[in-house]
Records
---
Amino acid sequence: MALKQLDHVRWLLDKDFKAGMRVTGLIYGDSYIIQKLEKEGALEQIANVACLPGILKHSYAMPDVHWGYGFPIGGVAAFSMDDGIISPGGVGYDISCGVRVMLTFLDQDEVKPHIDELTAAIFTKVPCGVGSKGAIKIGESDLLDVLANGALWAVKKGYGTKEDLECIEESGRLPHANASYVSKKALERGKPQLGTLGSGNHFLEIQVIDEIYDENVARRFGLNLGQVTVMIHCGSRGLGHQVCDDYIKVMLRAMTKYGIKVPDRQLCCAPLKSQEAREYLGAMQAAANYALANREIIGHMVRDVFLRFFPKAELKLLYDVSHNMAHIEKHELDGIIMDVCVHRKGATRAFPPDHPSLPEKYRPVGQPVIIPGSMGTESYILVGTKRGMEECFASTCHGAGRVLSRKAAMKSEDADTVLKRLEQKGIKVMADQMGTIREEIPEAYKDVSRVVDVVEKAGISRKVARLRPLAVIKG
């Protein structure tokens, strides 16, 4: 056994596991999750990340961890600004892929009779699927404005409200974005896709709150039993993918230039003090602004559709947070507060109460943390904790985490069988391509309830509410 069990949900991967490890690995999981982890080789990736220059404390793995490009998905690592690095593999191809939840203040009894027509109307309104193009036509000057201003651009153009910006991480705009570091090819890929959902594991769900775990925090968040919510999960589309692809090539050259050696070329990186790192950070933040604008526009489209069916409906944004980012953040190490670069790949920020980055209304309780389940399973709202801030750089899981590859999932069931099974559970499903339904079957993912229970038992975030799907829209 390569792991040492520290308590019920913490496991240590010792530095003896692999030559070159600078820190230990800290893995969150129960016996079910650890068993899945050891079968797929993600331990090797956790160890590889632990070999990177300037890594601080641990190479972390959240309970939804699984094999990814370079970093495992569900991996977290923080790096010193003095001798640390930044790696595109620690962010991923879908830069700022993230989730938002909107509160309808409608009861499920009001919505359920209209669910088929409502779902069809949203499916028609929000473009989805591979290579989908948006109804919003923008030129290059507008696109550059999007990359500079994120959701703020969307609100100024009439997509969304000023109140939304308060409830988006970084107030909807990463200020150090620099579009001059984004390639022409990335711009061309992004221009037609603004306001589109995409495909794969991206989705839009109509849900109902069917369980409240913390009445005090739920009240602060505006959550009530039986309340209908909308969850949107998507990212930076082709633009973010191209930025990652471009900078992997840059980082491979940079490693030769700076004499950096890594155990896996997919961990290619550059020193945080280097020009290459500054350019990647500028381009990554620009792609993140695109993603924030994209989710804001889709949220606006959903509001429009709901108003058609419920003229007095008021959809308020609970929160919008990314789970594929590298952020420069302030954290305390050895009693000193300092800037560090936190990579979260398939992991979510979970800031504690009183954190200065939080909206004023959430500071007394902490950050809303959104954990989507797999298609047809429940999702969760959690809240950040002080322990998570101190132990793992204010990070937590981001979802259920795959256990079957898309290829393996495609072999398991035909789409009609999956749809009938979900329909029997009272879940309406619409998709641009039936292949996506087969790829995203619930069995392709871990049990999200087990994953969420682990982070709660670890104390790095706490359960607030459970959301059950009424309708799912996929690309």
---
Amino acid sequence: MQPLVSIITIFLNAEDYIEEAIASAIAQSYDVWELLLVDDGSTDSSSKIARDYSDRYPEKIRYLEHPGHKNCGMSASRNLGIQHARGDYIAFLDADDVYLPDKIAQQVAILESHPEVGLVCGRTKWWYSWTGNESDRSRDFLQKYALPLNTAISPPTILILFLKDEWASLCDVMVRRQAVETVNGYETSFRGMYEDQAFHAKLCLKYPTFVSSQCWYLYRQHSQACTTDSHVSGKTLAARQMFLTWLEDYLSKSGLQQSEVWRVVQQQLFPYRHPHLHRLWLKWRFGIVWRGQKIWEKFKITNE
């Protein structure tokens, strides 16, 4: 018997995109799935759209909301979906993104053939061309990982990678239900930015991860996205500092103060905690680089 996959889609005022996300779940080549649509207090027509799909596909799609139709944040909404999920495996689909048709089938096959791993991830495509504009066609790019692909990676290698390089952070994952429960799901203190990275950090500290070279997930880039809004409003640095501080505390409580992850977190926190020293260090570093370039240019001219 094929394992059931629970797809969790949280949404807040996503009327422009949610139908395309739902359609990409329905179009999966793997048929043993359920879709949980978790409403985080929407005030537009996305609530009605989600309810309509739940009514049309009652055996496959369920609509969930917080008591009183409250807005409780992204982590609490994902946890609500997890609490109601029946699947052996749990996957996540943002309301403005799209699954490619073989996403579920191929990720299930990997998890079934690699019982030692807790989760599988693929390479996400940053998707600009959804607009249909000619100028956006060349902007699409595929996420890259500076590590071996199509194999299981032991912890905490991936966590260290995306601490050093945010572009390497996990976007498309499928996780064993047992692993999700073991790490207690998402951290409700993260209502928006970095809620996924806190969850992934807990997983990648504990479980091997299978990293595939395949792309199964289209990550729509648009002006209303949470990450875009955070960058425009200047909240990203504060959100990252909150994440790093939380991770430091989590590592401390886990007795990992002597680990490589701890050292990397301290390096990442240094600019926030010692901004003056960090600016001096940058000035010194780039001064050395600049002088090195001038010496090299002079050497080349002298020897031509």
---
Amino acid sequence: MALTVTAAPAVPAVREEAPTRGWTHRWQVLPLIATVLFVALPGDGAGAGTVFGVPAADLLSGVAVLVCAGLLLHRRRRPLSPAAAVVLGLPAVGLALATVTAADPVAALPGFVRYLQIFVLVPAAVLLLVRDAQGFRTVAGTLVLLAVVEGATGVHQYVTGSGASYMGEDIRAVGTFGPGDVMGMATVVGYGLVAATAYALRAPAGTPRRLRPWAPVTAALLVVPLTLSFSRGAWIATAAGALAVIALTGLRQAVRALAVLGAAGVVLVGGFGVGSEMISQRLTSITEVTSAPDRSVNDRYTMWAAAADMWREHPATGVGLKGFPAHRDGHASIGLSAGSDTAGAGQEFRKQPLLSPHNMYLLVLSEQGIIGFTALVGSWAALLAGGVRRLMLARARGAAAVDCGLAAVGLMTWQTVDFLYADIGGPSTVLTGIVLGLAAWWALDRPERTAGP
């Protein structure tokens, strides 16, 4: 009689639940995918990419936050670990303090909402909606797809002379972002290149052999539109992000990757002459910051000095969110120009006012003081340090999701370096929240979710 006892009826229940869970996990990242892809729509305030003047990508990021909130209410469980809650929630404290202490709290309120969206809500939504390594790869792969689309548009602009104005010619690759946001395409392409580099060096487990060459080919091709963006800050940030990825893969593979990158650079710039003269001039201008800086460099350093002076006057809480433009003229020298000249890519000549120091760290310091700076920059430092630590542990244990760690650390490195030369603003800003969320997923999420196949 004992031989007739069996536990077989329990098996079908497990098989029935697995597809539902898998579909649920993939459905959850759809708002994130849509947010990334909709960044490509022109968002000049009147185009198809806006709704009541708000970029569609920003609205979709709000949808992602609402979906995340709905799932949390449905599941009724603690959403974040204590460490994640502190790292992602701490910036909100500094933002709130800078808002209530501003000379005009009502005027500072839009800045509070924007910062809260980019640095708190969207990263938290990404952390919670990305359930496994496959979800991470899907979102990161969407960044690469967006980079390819924008990069192809930018190369077409350079070849046909339909880009933004640069040195008297309409050749600057700006993608769909227009001459008013010359950093937009460079940012998108930089993200895509770093992510593609990570997957080129460490292909995800189970990738078919015939698909493995696509990552290195994509990374190499994205060098072209990045170069044609003529964006010095994006060049430096992308080099830093790619080098971080290469260095963290191991010495032997790093040497091979650097050799390939060097050869690709010689072929693209030296062999084919892709904008070689203008690129050379642009590279040279990076070091000519004291002897003979161009006007854009002079304006940038003037605004940096103005931001530092604002902080010295209000060291604890700064001048308040959105306060830099109002205080700029009282702290900037007479050497600051009236604005930046923009034209081309379907736009008439315009004088674009200089409303930020083009350095995120100095912008935060001047508007939020040392309290907000410590909270926000400390959060970014925790994400980067935590990501590197977990990546080293994952490599030592031979975890399958090392490719996700490489992409997360590379993207976070790109962002922290780029903030030395840029700040938030424009349609591509929402991608900053996506990148911070991916870094948070790797650095702060539970080990069993980041160690998947």
---
Amino acid sequence: MTISAVRTHRVSAPLHTPFVTALRRTTTVDTLVVELVDSDGRSGFGEAPQVWQVTGASVAGAQACVHELLGPQLIGRDPDDLVTRCAEVQRAVVGNEAAKAAVDVALHDLAARRLGVPLVRLLGGTTLRVPTDVTLAAGDAVDLAAAARQRQADGFGVLKLKVGTDAAGDLDRVRAVRAAVGPGTRIRLDANQGWTPREAVRVIRGIEDAGLDVELVEQPVVRWDLDGLAWVSDRVSVPILADEAVFGVRDLVEVIRRRAADLVNVKLAKCGGLHPARTLLDLATAHGLGTVVGSMMESQVGIGAAASLVAAYGTTAVADLDAAWWLAWSPVQGGIRYDGATVVLPDAPGLGISGLAEAKVQAHG
């Protein structure tokens, strides 16, 4: 049995609400869905989201990488030799983590389908329900408070507040959200690299002094400033979560060595897929760091894979997997769904995706 075809599908799906961070504003999910087909006609799917401002990945770049390099080396190979195939993908090209993640996930999906088990079972887990937070896009204090009340009414108990666009007003934003939702809802902050180290310490200490009960602060400073990240971590009590600072194992080793953060956010499109993500989770756990599994703005394909990972491996903090919740419609048939604040994995082989909404995507053989 061999891999007989590698196909890519360009997807641009609208969001029901604009998504705004310190780095960007978007109204769509733009992504590349990769499809691997075996000689029996079964398909496995993976996803490479376009995130210019975070990973530098683009749909066009991922598609070129898959068509010109990763795909040709998979044709005619045995999809059941999963560890070898995934290792070959990681070695094949420098960078291009999103493209590698798409192929890695598609290989895992295909392997699970061939065994007739959900992806989570292939990864060693059994649960089909994974709690998630939900993001409050960056905005003014009044709008954030209103959004927080609505998300609380939607059933979300963990809110991720985007800050970092205006350090002088961020304390008031957090105060407004806490007042809106009361003490029973957890609030975490994501500055998306938007603060200087001094701004980060000033804002976080202000939050601590005001007793606003923030669970964690994600990536307060620019990704390359590990000294600054460590400086902030040393001066505040709120746990610091490294996100953009950690793409792969070498990045995480440096964060551990410098004691620069308390937790790490593992994302498939940053690290290259499920195979390296498991290594990052194991490494973080071995060194006493907390873990979160998150995502870029991506579809049910990527979220399904990340949620399967969480269901099998677990994390120390609630996952950050609300990205597909923002979509106005799904570009795939089947796959995960949301039940309030829970990602529900399908009890079906692989990712449970039967195909794509072909009228809404561009396919390339």
